[in-house]
Design a protein that fits this description.
Elements: E1 5-6, H1 7-14, E2 17-18, E3 23-24, E4 26-28, E5 38-41, H2 53-58, E6 63-66, E7 79-81, H3 85-99, E8 103-108, H4 113-125, E9 130-132, H5 142-148, E10 156-160, H6 169-176, E11 180-183, H7 197-205, E12 216-220, H8 226-236, E13 239-244, E14 251-259, E15 262-269, E16 272-278, H9 283-298, H10 303-309, E17 321-326, E18 335-341, H11 347-359, E19 374-379, H12 388-394, E20 406-410, H13 414-420, E21 426-430, H14 433-437, H15 440-443, E22 449-453, H16 461-469, H17 475-481
Parallel strand pairs: 4-5, 5-6, 6-7, 8-10, 8-11, 9-10, 11-12, 12-13, 13-14, 18-22, 19-20, 19-22, 20-21
Antiparallel strand pairs: 1-3, 2-7, 14-15, 15-16, 17-18
Helix pairs in contact: 3-5, 4-9, 7-8, 9-10, 12-13
Amino acid sequence: MAVLWTSADAAAATDGRATRPFAVTGLSIDTRTIRPGELFVALKDVRDGHDFVRDALARGAAAALVSRIPDGCSDSDPLLLVEDVLTALEALGRAGRARTRARVIAVTGSVGKTSSKEMLRAVLSAQGRVHAAEASFNNHWGVPITLARMPAEADFAVIEIGMNHPGEIAPLAHMARPHAAMITTVAPAHLEAFESVEGIAHEKAAIFEGLEPGGTAVVPTGLPVTPILLAAAKAHAAQIVTFGPAAGSDYRLLDARIAGDATIVQAEAKGHPLLFKVMTPGAHFAANALGVLALAEAVGADPAVAALDLGTWSPPTGRGTRERVYLDITDEAQSFDLFDDAFNANPASMAAALDVLAATAPRDGIGRVAHGRRVAILGDMLELGPDELKLHAAIARLPAMAAVDIVHCAGVRMRALWQALPQAKRGEWLETAAALADRAPHLVDAGDVVLVKGSKGSKVSLVVGALKKLGQPGAAEAFKGKE
C-alpha cells in the first residue's frame, strides 16, 4: 500500500519527535482491527490507549502516536512522541486536509448523515477517487482521523460531521474546510443538550462556518427551521442550493414512490424534469438523494451521471437494509422480510421507517398466522430530553401505524409507546432488547414484513441478530441460485 505519512511528515505536522524513522499506510485507534503498516493512535477514553501500544506493535503497527513511552516499550520502538495525543491527531488531520487536492464535502443533519455520505461515496466513485469517512466517524475523534487518512491524490472527500452538544460542529467544520456542505434535515434529537429544535438548527447550521471561499451551502426546504439554516448559509456561503418539497427549491421533490426494493423519484432539477431510482425503499432516501445530487454538482461532478449511479446504491447495514430470512431450506415461501434499521432513532427517522414498513406488502397464507403481517420491533429513542416519554407515545399517532399489525417494544422509554397503542396492536414489551431477542421465534412468522428500529444504545441490534439466526444456514444462497 502507498505510504500515507512518513515519520518526518508526521512529526512536522504534529510538532512531535519520532524515536526512529517509520512510514505508515493508515491510522487506527483500535488494536482489534488494526492492520499491519498502520499508525496506532493512543487516545484516552474509558481506557488509556497507551496500555495497548505494545499489543498494537505486536500486531504489525508501523508506529504509535503517544504522549509518553508506554510500559513495555522503549526509544527503540517506532513512536511519535507528542505533548497531547488528541491535539496531535487534530494537527495531523489539518495537515492531511491541507495537502490534498480533493474537493471536500461535509454532511450533517439529524437524520441521514451516514446514508447521504454513503450515497456520495457511491455516485462520486464513478467520477474520481473518493475518500470518505468509515462507519459513523463523525465526532471529535472521527473527523480528524478521516482527514488524516485522506490520500493526497484523492479527487473527492466526504466528511460526516455529527454532534451531541452545542459548540461541536463549528470546530470540526473549520478543520474539514469543505467546498460544499449539506444539512440533511433538522429534527428532535439530542434534546437532552438543547432546549429546542431551533437550538439544534443553529448548531447544525454552524457547518457552513467552515466553508472555503466560494463554497456552496446545500439547504433543505420545507422545515420550520429552514429560515435559520438559510440565514447561516447566506452569512458564510458564496452559493446556496436548496432541495426538498417546497416550491422554488432548486432540487424539488415532486413524488417518491416505493416499488418493491426501490424508490422511484420524480423531481425537478433547476426547473428541468428529473426521474431516477434509489435501490432501497423510503421517501427519506429520495429527499437525501436530491441533496446528494446538488453536492455532486457543486464539487464539479456530473449530476446526471450521479443520478444514474444512485440506482446501484443501497444503505449500509443497520440503516434500513432489507433482507429475506428463510425459515426452511426446502421451502422458499417459508420466510419473512427484515428491515434492519437498528443503528439510530429519533422521532423523524422512526416515522420514515414506519412509512416504509406501511408501504411494504406482506405475504398471506404461508405461516402460522392466516395472513402476513407488518411487524414493528422498536427500541428506545435516546437523548430526547425531558419530553422523551411523550415523544415515544406520540409514535402511536403516526399515520403509518394504521397499517402496522403488531408492535413489539423493548426498553423503559418504549413502554410509553406500548401503553399508547390500541390493545389489538400491542405485542410484547420487555425491559431490555436482550430479553426481547430471546423471544425472537415468537415475534415473527413466515410472510411477515418486520422492521427493527431503535437507537444504537438501546441494543435493539440484538433482536436483529436473533431474527437472522432463525434463518436456515445456506438457504439464501440456495434459493438465489434457483432464480
